[in-house]
Specification:
It is a single chain. The longest helix is centred in the last third of the chain and has 9 residues. It contains four helices and nine strands, in the order E-E-E-H-E-E-E-E-E-H-H-E-H. The strands form two sheets. It has a six-stranded antiparallel sheet with strand order 1-2-3-9-8-5. The chain has a three-stranded antiparallel sheet with strand order 4-6-7. The termini are far apart. The chain has about 120 residues and is of the alpha+beta class.
Length: about 120
């Protein structure tokens, strides 16, 4: 499994043609305590840059953007009932969606872990 990162602080873990998408630890720390998560329906087609989910915290509401294009195959509905999981394990159990990858070339536009960490240090 290979993990990629966007400048909007989403992560994408790719295994075969399936991508799992969530937000980074940095993103959840900037949001504060997450109190609400809205996820897309299974079957929805997302293009790179589309709103994939909405996260609301005690500080603000924020969109989660699709870092790549694909069709949603699974939504992590456990986050709807327990949105605080986003703060507890943002880069693990608190993934938002799984989707089929439409265009693997889009992954080349994303960063690897080292590049993302260097990017965050500039913020």
């Amino acid at each position: 499994m290979t993990t990629y990162y966007s400048k909007d602080h989403e992560w994408v873990a790719v295994e075969g043609d399936i991508a799992t998408i969530g937000i980074t630890d940095y993103a959840q720390s900037q949001l504060g305590d997450v109190v609400f998560v809205e996820l897309p329906d299974v079957g929805k087609t997302l293009n790179q840059g589309d709103e994939a989910a909405v996260v609301e915290s005690v500080k603000a509401a924020s969109e989660v953007y699709a870092p790549i294009s694909g069709d949603v195959t699974e939504a992590n509905n456990a986050l709807v009932d327990e949105p605080a999981k986003v703060n507890e394990d943002p880069e693990g159990a608190a993934w938002f969606v799984k989707m089929t990858v439409s265009d693997k070339a889009e992954l080349e536009e994303l960063m690897d872990e080292a590049a993302y960490k260097a990017f965050v240090e500039t913020l």
